[in-house]
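anyone seen this seq b4? input:
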Amino acid sequence: MSDFVQSLRLWFAPQRIRDEGDTPDYRFSLANERTFLAWIRTALALVGGGFAVDQFLPDLRWGVRVGLALALLAAGVLCALRAVNHWVRCERAMRRDEDLPVSRFPALLSLAVAVVALAMVVVVLFGWAG
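predicted toks r here
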C-alpha cells in the first residue's frame, strides 16, 4: 500500500497512528494539534474572505468578484485538506523518530494570498465599477 493511501486512511481512523513507532512526548503531539488548529483557522478565514468578497462587493465587475472569491475559497479548501495531511505526516514522523516532513505548501499559500491581495489593491486604487 502506498504511503499516500496509508496517510489518507489515517485521516479517518486516527487511532491507527498508535500502531506506528513509539508514543512521542505528549507536548509534541499537542503542539502538532495546535498547528493543525492554526491551519484550520487560516482555512476558515480564507473561506470567510471568499464569501465576504462575493457578498459585500456587489458593484465589482462580476468576473473579478467571482475570480477573487473563488481564489480565496479554493485556498481555504486546500488549506483545510493540507491541515489534516500535515498533522498525520508529522505525527507519524514523531512516532517513527524521523525528521519532520517539509512542504512547499506554506509558500504556495502565501503566494496565492499575495496575488489576491494585490488584485484587491488594484480594485481599491482604480475603483470597483466595471
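The chain is about 75% helix and 0% strand. The mean pLDDT is 90. kinda curious what u guys think
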